[in-house]
Amino acid sequence: MPSRRQLLQASALASGLGALGFQSSMASTVRPATSGPVYAYVGTYSDGGKPWRGGRGLGVHQFVLDGATGALKPIPGAPPAVTSAGADAKLRNPASLARHPSLPMLYAANEFEAGSVSAFRIGANGALSFVAEMPCGGKDPAHLSVHPDGRFVFTANYASGDVSVIALRNDGSFDTDRAAVVYKDVAACGAATPCKPGADVVPLAARSHEGFATSDHDGPHAHMVQADPAGNFVLVADLGLDRVISYRFDRATGVLSQPSTVAVSESSGARHFAFHPNGKWVYLVNEEASTIAFLRYDGASGVLTLVSETSALPKGFKGTSYASGIRMLPGGTHFVSLNRLHDSISIFQVDARTGAPTLVREEWTRGNYPRSCTLDPSGRFLYVCHNKQGDNVTIFRVKKNGDVQFTGQYVAVGSAAAIEFST
């Protein structure tokens, strides 16, 4: 059996061949591609600032998808990226991307102290053109999403521990007559349920893998914000408070109100979540504990209830790892989560009756420090972004049994943080 060093050398060779236009023999035929072109956009860290960012991205890199193989190729006639270099740059660490649900618009959260959101129009050939930049009112927006109605953008502002609501016009541009409205995470809890940073304790579910990371429990740190599938509530995962906040959402005004919260294990570090297709089950990545919290969701009240927490790392693992992205696979029978430093994809099976997740196995990501993963529109390929030293996006085939298999394809992108698609 080849050693990990040999595998790394082989992967580096494959990466170099990929850059020269060669495809690995590991790629195999999949179902016929969907009609019409599919475009892919990779957000990056363009300004190092902090060691884990990397800072080698050019901005938002743009590609066209080969639907037969999953490969990402340059858009003919378009620049490799919408750049963030130079004195007139409109981007800085566009590390999170979101597509408008009905218009050819793409939004990027600029993760730096004076946080902002940039809007781009998607051209007929898939190339992006800058439209405008809007301050979000918070610091270091680490995640953004668009409400299903397409009238508001949300940002989760990590450094300031709050979320912002930004109004959009009918054409998808920012409503500059309305400033972003900011909601502090700590204000979501009352006297009976105080929000406070957790202590550096090891949650029970993290003890099985004998590894636990500690960082950023010095205050609130909003890490993800997204509406529920029906669009009636907006959920926020706060890493520093170890909580998920659920706000009732006014679809006409964009106002967030009547917050309720659910706590996960102290110091576990709530990061990102994914809804099951039934809208009743939620799976939350806890970054510090490297665990998955399984929660039940009441769509009528917006209330979340914690059911269980399960390790996302193999039993007996010793060392430090930071869990990151999560993605539900087609059909809802499986989902995947990412582990940084362990550099793996954890594959979970979902109990069809109870929703309980079971860790099936781990798959090496073929890169360093995987930050996020996304499915292409067909659900046949999974793309993993590596932002620290990996500087690439690796491509996996999603099998019908819920497993994933590396295609042998690498896409060279400096400090890749997130990928979004457009049809």
From TrEMBL:
Its cofactor is Cu cation. Keywords: Carbohydrate metabolism, Glucose metabolism, Signal. Pfam families: Lactonase (PF10282). One of its GO terms (cellular component) is cytosol. InterPro entries: Cycloisomerase_2, Lactonase_7-beta_prop, N2O_reductase_N, TAT_signal, WD40/YVTN_repeat-like_dom_sf. Transmembrane segments: none annotated. Coiled coil: none annotated. Residues 1-27 form the signal peptide. One of its GO terms (molecular function) is 6-phosphogluconolactonase activity. It comes from the Bacteria. SUPFAM superfamilies: Nitrous oxide reductase, N-terminal domain (SSF50974). One of its GO terms (biological process) is glucose metabolic process. Belongs to the cycloisomerase 2 family. This is Lactonase family protein. It comes from Acidovorax cavernicola. The lineage of its organism: Bacteria, Pseudomonadati, Pseudomonadota, Betaproteobacteria, Burkholderiales.
